[in-house]
Each structure stands twice: as structure tokens, then as C-alpha cells.
Amino acid sequence: MMDESPTPEQFAGQYGVPVAEAREYLTLAAELDERERRCLADILAAVDGPVVELGAGAGEFTRELLARYLKPGQRLYALERLETVARKLRETIGDGRLEVLVSDSRRVPLPDGAAALVISRVALHDFVSDDGDIAAALRDCVRVLMPGGVFLVYDKVTDGFADVERESAEGRMERINVQLAALEGKRCWGLHRLRHYHELLLRLGLDGIRHEVLPRPDRPGYVADLKRRLDQARPGYVKSWGEGVHAVLDSFLAEVDGLPNRALPLAMVWGRKQVRG
């Protein structure tokens, strides 16, 4: 992450946990960050053309791409579907290599073969659509890849869990997004196993698929912090999805205290667009 890490004492105070637990967690988190950086650096080192980021949001990863991985003069197209969010990205990131596009993955406003790499970071499991067809939603991203270009998905996976919703508070929490999408008659892709991401890239016609799994440390104080954040977010959720939100959140809160605090692993899965003779 680009932000400076808190000290163990700061972390312990913020999340109400012992300093020793905070210190151990921060050490493991730093090791995870280093593994992530090495993997991304290896992949992007071989990419010289423009990069497309899907779902830029607040721009945390956008900044990281620009600061750590892109070369001088290498173009970054950050896709963000909300105009207000896109405008803030333009206003807060002053880098001439960046162009923010108001769009989603279904309609990428770039010509065929314009990008050397398309990357999605911890976003696909939250993807919402009318039909839930994630492959259809990503085909236009493959269209804008040049032959031999790389498509990289980086997301949470449920490998290592028999029943992720019973074995992980985080796993149970992720069902909230599926339930909220259902309130408006839509489908959220949700959590999947590593093999499902492999199958997705195969459906998109990509070759040479590889992966790297990054286990995450369990975060002390996760459940209490999550409950606090959901309580703060409830009014906004109701405004967006209606009164049905209360049943979704109340069901989760009734269960979460009895669930283990096991973090979901992350997986990078990538492949190349075929070069046709």
C-alpha cells in the first residue's frame, strides 16, 4: 500500500487489540505487501504499452500503479463508471500519464488492440449486473488488448475453506453484497475459488494462464471494526437499496460474533490474448 503503515501502538489503539497482536499482524501484512509488489513488478516489467485499470474507485491502486509500476511515458487509462468519482480522480491525481474514463468493463472507450495490459484488483467479486454473466461483461476488455497483451485479475478466493461463510467472518460478510444486489433485482458475482478464475480467463480466450496465491494474515479486531463500519454505513445503504437492507444487516450481525476471524487469501490470475497467425 502507498500509505505509511501505522505503528503497532497506533494500530492497537485504533482497533482495541493488544500491542503484541498488532505488531505480529503488521509484520505479516508487510510481508504480504512485499510479495504482491514483487509479483506485480515482474508482470508489469514486461509491459511497455498502455495499461487499463478496471474500477478505479478512490484511486488507491491508480496511484500505486503510477508510482511503482508504470514506466515514464507509459499511459494509464483508469475506468470508473461514476462521473462524480471520476471527476475527483482527475482533480486529485496530477500525473500526465493518467486518463480517467467514465465507463465500465462492458463498454471500454478505446479502439481494438489499444492496451498492453488490463488489470482488475479486488473488484470482480463485487461485480453486479442484470444477468450475472461475468465473462460477457469482460469481453470488451479483451477486445482492447493487443495480441499478446495481458489480462490480470487479482481478487479474494475461497481456497482453503470448506464452507467459507461458516469458517470466516469475512467470507460471511461478502454475502452482503450478493444480497444487496438482489434487492434491486441484480446479480453479484460473489466469492469464487481459484479454479473459477482460471475457467473465466479460458472462457475469455486467453492463453498461458498462470497464478500466484497470496495468503493474508488474520486482522486483529476485524469483527468489531466491521460491525462499527456497517452501523455507520446503514443509513446510506437504506437510501440506496431500501428498507430491505435492515434484514440483510441484522441477519449478518446476529451471526458474525460467533464466526472465526479468518482472512480470505488473494490470488493473482493472468493470461495473454492469443496471437493469431
What does this structure look like?
With 277 residues, the protein is an alpha/beta fold. The protein has a single domain (17-46, 104-273), classed as 3-Layer(aba) Sandwich (Rossmann fold). 45% of the residues lie in helices and 19% in strands. It has helices at residues 8-15, 19-45, 60-69, 83-92, 134-143, 164-167, 169-173, 175-183, 194-203, 222-241, 244-256, and strands at 51-54, 76-80, 98-102, 115-121, 128-129, 145-156, 187-188, 206-214, 266-273. The strands form two sheets. The protein has a seven-stranded mixed β-sheet, sandwiched between helices. A two-stranded antiparallel sheet has the order 5-7. The protein starts with 7 loop residues before the first helix and ends with a strand. The mean pLDDT is 94.
